[in-house]
Amino acid sequence: MAKSRLQQLTELGQSVWIDSLSREMLETGELERLVGEDSVSGVTSNPTIFQKALAEGDWYDSELRELASLGDTREIFFRLAENDVRQACDLLRPTHEETNGVDGYVSLEVDPSLAYDSESTYAQTLRLHSEVDRPNLYVKIPATRPGLPATEDAIAAGHSVNVTLIFSLQRYIEVVDAYLRGLERRVAGAGAVGAINSVASFFVSRVDTEADKRLEAIGSPEALALRGKLAVANAKLAYSHYREVFSSERWLYLASKGARVQRCLWASTSTKNPDYSDTLYVSELIGPETVNTMPIETVRAFQDHGTAAETLTKGVDEAKRLLEQIEAVGVSYDEVVDTLEAEGVQKFEDSFAQLLTGIDSKLKKLGVGR
To answer: Can you list the domains of the chain with their CATH numbers?
Structure first.
């Protein structure tokens, strides 16, 4: 029997995750089907998806009635989300065990309002790991500057994390360094590192969205010819750094103690521009020891007509030149990625605020709200 396109991706060393989780997906068996039929081996939860599920269905109504007495919508959300994540972790536990702890993870993010507060981010990371209490949980920490020490501290304490909202190559370098420092601190304290895992989530399509807007504003033939190329180049250069760091002497010492690599995870991989291929941010970013977390629509598109072939290590020199060309036509790479990080944090906060408002509205509709 011929292997599916997503199975071929897995054989090339890339794990397929999905970027949504809801009670409906769990209780209807949709997540189980994705794992069984589409080679899905991980999940990242998403407040926007959660809000939609909360607003459109009654999947959470019974539990909301039970939790209404807590009064705090943030606390209610985390109780609901923790239950979903716990169930998903249990469903993916066989995957976690079969892959020796490489895959089978479910990610739950910290409160986005903590993005610039290192101590509170770290404290909530510990709390979520304690309350979900599953070995295949990733707590998502934003890759803001204050998120770096929280990441290092979490790793040093022995907890697995998904470092999210990475846009710039410089910030990625800092994320990897925070991971290594956390491992080094743990090894120095005679702590075990073999069960610690991490992914560095590089956001992809948004880079093209922001860069293309600036290139179109310039409007020259040279600028317009560069549209739709920065995101892939950015990710390829990040992967090049990954390969360099995780073959260095510094890493080999940690690996000798049982440490695991921090894989690159390609996030935001749905294609926003209809002029581009709907599998662009999958087909161009395939390589060993990576993860692509896709919306269900992208999973289906790649399963239908994607091409599985290693591409991440191809065209690295061209990627370097592209960054030079982008600057030459008048677009600042630093301004693009700095804008995206600030907007990314704000979008997370706005989405979370809408989610809390939605919980409050649903409680009132159920007759248990204030």
So the answer is: 5-365 (3.20.20.70)
Q: What is the tens place of the pLDDT at every residue in 312-329? A: 999 999 999 999 999 999
User: Considering 3, 52, 140, 320, which one is annotated as catalytic?
Assistant: 140
Helix or strand (DSSP H, E) at 351: helix 333-365
Phi/psi region, residue 168 (left: phi>0; alpha: psi -120 to 50; beta: rest), is beta
Q: Where are the beta strands (DSSP E) in the chain?
A: 14-18, 40-44, 105-109, 137-142, 161-166, 198-203, 262-267, 290-294
Asked if residue 47 has pLDDT above 90, the reply is no
Collapsing DSSP states into helix, strand and coil, what is residue 25?
helix
pLDDT tens, residue by residue, 125-134: 999 999 999 9
Based on the residue annotation, tell me whether 140 is a catalytic residue of this protein: yes
Length of the chain equals 370
Question: Is the pTM above the cut of 0.85?
Answer: yes
Please give the Cα distance from 172 to 362 (Å, whole number): 39
